[in-house]
Write a structure and sequence with these properties.
The complex is a heterodimer of chains A (779) and B (149). Chain A is globular. A 6-stranded mixed β-sheet of chain A has the order 10-14-15-13-12-11. In chain A, strand 23 and strand 24 form a beta hairpin. By secondary structure, chain A is of the alpha+beta class. In chain A, 42% of the residues lie in helices and 25% in strands. The radius of gyration of chain B is 15 Å and the shape is globular. Chain B has 3 helices and 11 strands; from the N terminus they run βββββαββββαββα. By secondary structure, chain B is mainly β. In chain B, strand 10 and strand 11 form a beta hairpin. The longest helix of chain B is centred in the middle third of the chain and has 5 residues. Chain B has a 6-stranded mixed β-sheet. A 5-stranded mixed β-sheet of chain B has the order 3-6-7-5-4. Classes of the chains: A alpha+beta (779), B mainly beta (149).
């Protein structure tokens, strides 16, 4: 393919993508002349160029579209759904032909008679009226309109001549002078010769600048992605070399070398960031296709849906953008097809007929959050549970115990489809599980929340880049392995005797009690050498437990030693090694040797910590179940109000804080504090539990004790009188709950203590705390 | 000479082997390897080849020979096969030689099965026989040395 055609294809693809958006926008505001003009220009350019390149079919089709558009632009026709559909079909046909040119070099065997006929038919009402007068040739019009504009490569002399500000001969002389070595610019020469007024040159310059599109097109260039990939690889190698040099320079006394390597360190980091930046693309690039998708899906199922976007400019690595494209499209289609109701149902439910799909993206903690929320009917949790039980994915007993959120996340199980009828859009029982798998693959997480009648939100957390990630380096039998830090929760080290005592076994499966919860343990060595003898770790040495999170399930990985964290460059594994799910890739360490990167999910699966079928952890309910069975738990004991004594699970505590009384402010009728850049509401535990407050006369203490509870980045502070103790004790819940916010009572440290049900307590005090925050802002 | 071919030669247990020179990227001395657990024994480990990570195949194990003695370090013949770069671990490196196509024959039926599958042809040289390997098949997942021991 020649360069000209390639250039044409690239440009046309971009233009077509823009067209899709513009058409959809135009449908919303049919009177927008600017939009129409822009669309017209794009089609006109395509038509012109393919006529020039000899693609006649393409030209014919584009020409028909152009005719139709020119009538719309001149107000002789008004846009309606039929015309939009026909024009979009034309855009699709053009796109297909371009794709065909891209792969085979010609337009391909196609028959667009029907489409051309439709386009012609739509032209007819006007064409008939105008039979007498000559059909105004749209091209001419455009050329007329374009006359004052100049092509982008026009030179100053030509502008001056056209504006009759300079004579041809003068300009010619000036250019000649330049050729002979005069370093001055044509404008300068002319002004100095006195043949042109400086004012004229300035005006001509500004015209030239306009023609060049304010210089934006000049300041950017197209680069092949493969080129950037290669560059990224080289930078990756440079990072490794830098690591090696740093390691070496730390062992020498040579101050010159030390300084140089520090400098190298800095520059490499900057270079790495710079190259990464070139690969970053705004997520809007993927989103830009969605208005069209939403329009088509909505139209095909008779719904009205508006799409809104927030954070279009949020940037992600190119490879990640590619990886999330399909999952996002799937979720968007799903939301329109299943989430949002038909206009009749919506009106009956007291909602506006037009549904709203909101896409949000924002950075948080080195990750990108993407949310897709609709204001539809929400998930039918009972139906989902029933389906899951029917299909044998979960047990009925399990279903009964599930929290709303757990039930909602059942949609990610393979083989579960709740669509009543299978449409061509979605509902085939493949889909959400594939979404989950794809997001998992790039180290992201996905979660769904739903409110009956109010909508559904799918939330993804995606890493910024895959190429260079922070990782924890561990050693097993002298070999080093890297564990992506994103899966890492904490590190536990048990010394000597403690290691033997604290690691217990349930039917031969080793477990460790981490703050009252059973943490299944996986020995890395046994996973890597299944044929080796299962040597017991009872050598009396310390045990290093790396607490990892895989698919909402925690487990402890026991390794020989824990080295350090390091930025590693992820290299893919060769084809021969791909089959092994225990490894996610490889990397080169500071000393130049290769280390394998562990795939935490794969490891958990092969160790049976998480089932292949992804049965979900029964989180929240575990604790209360444990409270009944009398298992040992770690509790935080608190004094609330006057002599109230309550206990809560320590694992629910994010932090303990003290606030000065002045720091407590009011927002509405709620007390709040500023905490880590956010506003955190305060809940007085005694007040919610209707316990007697301390006598007013005693005066409030100078400092307020607050237990911080966090979920999904939102925090709430529980105000207590005093923090009494942390106890690890087994106790039996004896009395049933006597109040909202309590599980019941038990004897802890020989004293009767109320057991705090933190969730219900918060819900009582702040009814909407557990609601979906962004959706809440929406309403 | 009618249709001469160039081969990069090497020795495995004193037997003369070769791969077409076009497929060979480079030949390097022994490199430190990182072993890969859970892999069949024919894959000896991963090598850092100037920033590129390549899989090292032990041709002794692949062809059904006994392991080389501990103190004998293998050499690497870095080969491009199946769109990937891999390394063949061999005992010793020979010269690049030019051989006429017409002195080749099909491998004899009596060759051990795992070797016959990989030998593309036997070239009758003056002093000895040269077995030319099919690099693609050598890295393919079927055949000897792939079972875990």
């Amino acid at each position: 393919m020649d360069d000209l055609t390639r250039e044409f294809l690239l440009e046309s693809y971009e233009n077509l993508d823009r067209l899709d958006q513009e058409f959809v926008k135009l449908e919303g505001e049919p009177g927008n002349l600017e939009l129409l003009k822009s669309i017209f220009r794009t089609i006109h350019t395509i038509k012109g160029t393919c006529g020039f390149l000899g693609f006649t079919k393409l030209e014919t089709l584009a020409h028909r579209g152009e005719n139709l558009l020119s009538l719309l632009r001149d107000g002789q026709l008004t846009l309606n759904a039929e015309i939009t559909t026909a024009l979009l079909a034309m855009v699709d046909a053009v796109r297909q032909m371009l794709a065909s040119i891209d792969t085979t070099g010609n337009e391909g065997e196609r028959n667009d008679e029907a489409l051309i006929a439709t386009l012609t038919r739509l032209l007819e009402p006007v064409a008939l009226e105008e039979k007498e007068e000559a059909n105004p040739e749209p091209q001419e019009k455009l050329e007329k309109e374009k006359e004052p504009e100049f092509p982008p490569d026009v030179n100053l002399g030509e502008i001056l001549i056209q504006r009759k500000a300079a004579k041809v001969i003068d300009v010619y002389d000036a250019v000649q002078q330049q050729h002979e070595g005069d370093p001055r610019r044509v404008g300068e020469i002319l002004v100095e010769k006195g043949v042109v007024k400086p004012q004229e040159v300035l005006e001509a310059l500004s015209l030239q600048q306009q023609a060049r599109g304010t210089g934006v097109s000049d300041s950017t260039i197209r680069v092949e992605v493969s080129q950037l990939d290669r560059l990224m690889n080289r930078v990756g190698e440079l990072v490794l070399l830098r690591n090696q040099i740093l390691q070496y320079s730390n062992t020498t006394e040579d101050s010159g070398l030390l300084a140089t390597s520090q400098r190298l360190n800095l520059i490499t980091t900057e270079l790495q960031e710079g190259v990464m930046k070139t690969r970053m693309q705004p997520i809007g690039n993927v989103w830009s296709k969605f208005p069209r998708t939403v329009r088509d899906v909505a139209l095909s199922c008779g719904k009205k849906v508006r799409i809104e976007m927030e954070g279009k400019e949020t940037e992600l690595d190119k490879t990640i953008i590619e990886a999330i494209k399909d999952p996002l499209t799937h979720i968007v289609r799903n939301s329109v097809d299943h989430g949002i109701e038909t206009p009749e149902k919506r009106i009956a439910a007291g909602k506006p007929a037009e549904g709203c799909l909101l896409l949000r993206a924002f950075h948080e903690g080195g990750q990108v959050n993407i949310e897709i929320s609709d204001d539809g009917a929400g998930l039918d949790l009972e139906k989902i549970k029933r389906k899951a039980v029917e299909k044998g994915l979960i047990t009925a007993e399990h279903a009964g115990r599930m929290s709303e959120r757990e039930a909602a996340n059942l949609v990610f199980l393979p083989g579960l489809s709740t669509a009543e009828k299978v449409t061509n859009v979605s509902g085939r029982g493949v889909g959400m599980d594939v979404v989950r798998t794809n997001i998992d693959k790039i180290g992201g997480t996905v979660d769904v929340q739903s409110k009956p009648g109010a909508g559904t939100t799918v939330r993804m957390k995606i890493p910024l880049t895959l190429a260079i990630i922070p990782a924890l380096i561990v050693t097993n039998r002298g070999d080093r392995y890297a564990i992506p830090q994103i899966s890492l929760l904490e590190l536990v080290r048990l010394e000597g005797e403690e290691a033997q005592k604290r690691i217990e076994s349930v039917q031969g499966a080793p477990v460790y009690r981490l703050r009252g919860r059973l943490l299944p343990l996986v020995y890395l060595d046994r996973e890597l050498r299944p044929e080796g003898r299962a040597e017991e770790a009872s050598k009396g040495t310390a045990a290093n437990i790396v607490v990892l999170q895989a698919d909402e399930r925690q487990f402890g990985l026991v390794v020989d030693s824990i080295n350090d964290t390091e930025e590693i460059v992820v290299k893919p594994l060769g084809k021969q090694l791909k089959g092994i799910k225990t490894f996610a890739g490889s990397t080169i360490m500071g000393d130049g040797r290769v280390a394998l990167i562990l795939d935490v999910l794969g490891l958990a699966q092969s160790a049976n910590v998480v089932g292949e079928s992804r049965e979900h952890a029964i989180s929240g309910t575990e604790a209360s179940a444990a409270a009944q069975s009398g298992e040992k738990q770690t509790m935080l004991v608190l004094e609330v109000g006057r002599d109230g004594r309550v206990a809560m699970e320590l694992s629910l505590v994010a932090r303990l804080e003290e606030f000065k009384r002045e720091a407590i402010e009011k927002a509405g009728d709620r007390e709040v504090v500023q905490y880590r850049g956010k506003i955190m509401p305060l809940v007085d535990v005694a007040e919610v539990l209707r316990l007697a407050q301390k006598q007013g006369g005693e005066g409030k203490p100078e400092m307020t004790q607050v237990v911080v509870y966090s979920e999904e980045g939102r925090s709430v502070g529980l105000v207590v009188e005093r923090i009494l103790d942390i106890v690890e004790e087994s106790f039996v819940r004896q009395q049933p709950a006597k109040h909202e916010g309590l599980f019941g009572s038990a004897v802890i440290q020989q004293k009767v203590t109320d057991l705090l049900d933190v969730h219900s307590l918060i819900r009582t005090a702040i009814p909407n705390f557990f609601d979906d925050a962004p959706m809440h802002q929406e309403r | 000479m009618a249709n001469p071919q160039q081969f990069c030669t090497f020795y495995i247990d004193k037997q003369f082997f070769a791969v077409p020179v076009q497929q060979v990227q480079e030949v390097i001395r022994y490199q430190e390897m990182t072993r890969v657990p859970l892999m069949p024994p024919v894959i000896r480990g991963l090598i850092n080849l100037r920033g590129q990570i390549v899989v090292a195949f032990d041709l002794r194990r692949r062809l059904g020979y006994a392991d080389r003695p501990e103190e004998q370090k293998p050499m690497n013949v870095v080969v491009r096969a199946e769109e990937e770069t891999v390394s063949f671990l061999v005992d010793e490196i020979g010269d690049v030689i030019e051989v006429e196509e017409d002195c080749a024959e099909q491998p004899p039926e009596t060759l051990p099965a795992e070797m016959r599958e990989l030998v593309r042809g036997v070239y009758k040289l003056k002093e000895q026989l040269l077995l030319v390997l099919d690099a693609e098949r050598t890295v393919n997942a079927a055949g000897g040395g792939w079972q875990r021991n």
